[in-house]
Each structure stands twice: as structure tokens, then as C-alpha cells.
Amino acid sequence: MESYFAELIGTFILLLLGNGVVANVVLRQTKGHGAGWIAIAAGWGFAVFAAVLCVGEISGAHLNPAVTIGLAVAGEFAWQLVPGYIAAQMTGAFIGAIVVYLFYRSHFEATAEPELKLATFCTAPVFRNLPHNLFCEIVATFVLVFAALSMSDPSFTLAEGAEEIPVGLGSIGAIQIGLIVFAIGLSLGGPTGYAINPARDLGPRIAHAILPIPKKGSSDWSYAAVPVIGPIVGGILAACLHLAMHYLFD
Fold it and tell me: Could you give the C-alpha distances from 123 to 79, 117, 119, 157, 199, in angstroms and in order?
């Protein structure tokens, strides 16, 4: 139960800061209005760092169903815990999106464009071509999950033949995954907005659908399956490659 609660809180923090930077950049009359894509990509990277820092030692800070499923496929996470983790991640993302709306409520009212309001909740492609959009989400999430599976803390041995002792990086360890997300945003985020996380997209999209946002427009459910299916497929492919490399080279 402690791990599930940690995943909920961690994903809440991720969405509060991640969707918060999007709101700060795209909504009208904010202090950060117009700061641009680099600010958004950096904000999401730092959001991941903050969330992992807060709950990493409790739950492992998956914060993402694609990561949870990828770890399970790779044999590094128990399958019986997967449903609980995903439910916690979805709930945390949903709550985080609601708090972002409450935080920026005056700026939602000052913003006329429905598409900008939706962007503070979930992703949308620049060019709507669902097979290509799906491909982009698969590739971007593949990079995320493969990197997560490849990370390891440094270690040392006290003497020849002695047991290897891992050395924890503490909060510095959280920087690694934050930088990966930053890199994905800068390099691969352009076509679809890089959801790379089903909970990050679906939970807030549900929040957008039910919140009384003035002149909010559509929640774009015709696209909603892409940022769910794509990241899951990308995570599974990353896990399969990880397993294949260990089989071939270990």
C-alpha cells in the first residue's frame, strides 16, 4: 500500500509541475507566457527529477504505466503489482491536472483558444496522422524505458574477490532520468508533444472532460488512444531489447 500511495503522490507531483510549465507558457497573461518549447522540455525534465526525488526510495518512482509494464516484461518488477501501480499513477495524474487548473484558473478565463487550454492537460499532434503519431510515441517511449532499464548505480569492491558493494547516488540519481526526459522533449517532442506516458495523457484528459472550464472545447477523444497504446508498445519493445542484449552478451 505504501508503494501505491508513493506512486500516486509522485505522479501527482510530475503532473503538477509538468502540466504547470505548459500552462505557464501557453496560457494568456502568465509571467511565463511565450517562454517557448525549451522551457516546456526543461520543465518536464525537472518535474521528473522532483517526482523521482520525492518517492523513488519508496516505490521506485515508475510514475508511468509504460515504465511499469516495461519493467515487468523485463522481469524486474512483479506482475501482481502492475494493476495497483497503474491505478495509482492514473489517479495521481488526474488529481495533478485538476490542481493545475485551479492554480491557473484566472489564466484559463483569460485564454480564448480552446486548443491552448487542452494543451495544458494532454497532448495533440501537429499533423494528425494516427499511424505516424503512434510511431512517434513508440520511438520516444522506447528511448525512455530502454534508458531506465540501462541505468545502474556505481559500485566498488573492497578487495580482490570481495563482494561488490553498490554505491547509491541519492538525489543525484534522479537527475539521470530527468535528463533523459529533457533530451526526448528537445529531440523527439515536436510531432506529438511526447506523451511517453499513458497516465500523463489519459488522466488529465479525463480531468479536462469533466472540469467546468469556460469555453474549453473538445477533449479530443479521437486521438486519446495514441498516447496510451504507443507508450505501452514502446516500453515493451525496450524491455524485449534489454532482455535480448542480456541473453546475447552476458
Answer: 28, 11, 6, 46, 12
CA distance linking residue 164 with residue 145, whole number of Å: 26
For the purposes of burial, counting CB atoms within 10 Å of the CB of 76, is it exposed (0-12), middle (13-18) or buried (19 or more)? middle
Per-residue pLDDT of 2-24, as tens digits, reads: 999 999 999 999 999 999 999 99
Q: What is the DSSP letter of 163?
A: P
**HSE, side-chain direction, 13 A CA sphere, residue 20:** 18
In sequence order, which residues have a C-beta less than 8 Å from that of residue 106 and are 6 or more positions away?
A: none
- Single-letter code of the amino acid located at 15: L
Report the 10 Å Cβ neighbour count for 209: 16
pTM: 0.93
Helix axis angle for 65-73 and 198-210, nearest 10°, is: 150
Q: What does the alpha-carbon distance between residue 190 and residue 200 come to, in Å, rounded to a whole number?
A: 17
Which residue from 204, 198, 194 is spatially nearest to 45, judged by alpha carbons? 194
Second-level CATH architecture of 2-249: Up-down Bundle (1.20)
